[in-house]
């Protein structure tokens, strides 16, 4: 069970998604061109693996009477991240004929999160207090845009005078999320199936509300690519990147007075494969 909440902003404005490319300008072979600007598209294909949803409930006397454990895992629950595509921007600086540093950014891709399985507490009440993450009306559970400012350290093979040059790179990124939206039916199901019952059980009757948060963090990238120079300043760049990226998503239900009634967490290894094709200009 996972959604996204507007996460803390970073002072990074350059940023977005993980990309890849093979670059490598040099002043000796390409005139003045040891700088390069790139623009193009990328396709993200997640290879996600998620843990079952883990839930913590506020302790209550009624919950104890009904046999509801304050903490429980819901076997069979999973989260799935959709594929996505976006426009990429990058700047590369060649420091030698073979070594390049690249900063990458662009338009953050939008991802949707879909669910599978049923979240329900232990005991007989679990047959009543439950939310089906896989129900069609609840999906996609949420959507958000992923930002991932990226730095790549790249080694480019072959002599810089050659038109076609393969490359390998390693890098790192820091991810965070914006423009989070919850599915209205999913939000209503949480309030109706969990929120109202928990509010009564804890002595806080009334309307409940749902909040969500996605924790990003550092990810690591391995990249293979090529740079095909078709004129002195222009190139076509293609690449495939393998990103090690994990996130922990949290959803909380609050009583009318702001008291937290329940918290559910899921850990997702997203690990996307990213294919990109860009046009580069040296200067």
Characterization of the model:
This protein has 283 residues and is mainly β. The protein is built from 2 helices and 19 strands. The chain has an 8-stranded antiparallel barrel with strand order 1-6-7-12-13-15-16-19. Strands 2, 3, 4, 14, 17 and 18 form a 6-stranded antiparallel sheet that branches. A hairpin with a 7-residue loop joins strand 12 and strand 13. The longest helix is centred in the C-terminal third of the chain and has 18 residues. The radius of gyration is 23 Å and the shape is elongated. It starts with 34 loop residues before the first strand and ends with a strand. 45% of the residues are buried. The N terminus is likely disordered.
Rg, Cα atoms, Å: 23 Å
The strand line-up of the biggest sheet is 1-6-7-12-13-15-16-19
Mean pLDDT: 83
- Quaternary state of this entry equals single chain
> How much of the polypeptide forms β-strand, as a percent range?
over 45%
- The best one-word shape is elongated
Low-confidence stretches at least 5 residues in length (pLDDT < 50)?
1-31
Helix/strand-derived category reads: mainly beta
User: What's the helix-strand series?
Assistant: EEEHEEEEEEEEEEHEEEEEE
- Terminal-residue CA separation: 48 Å
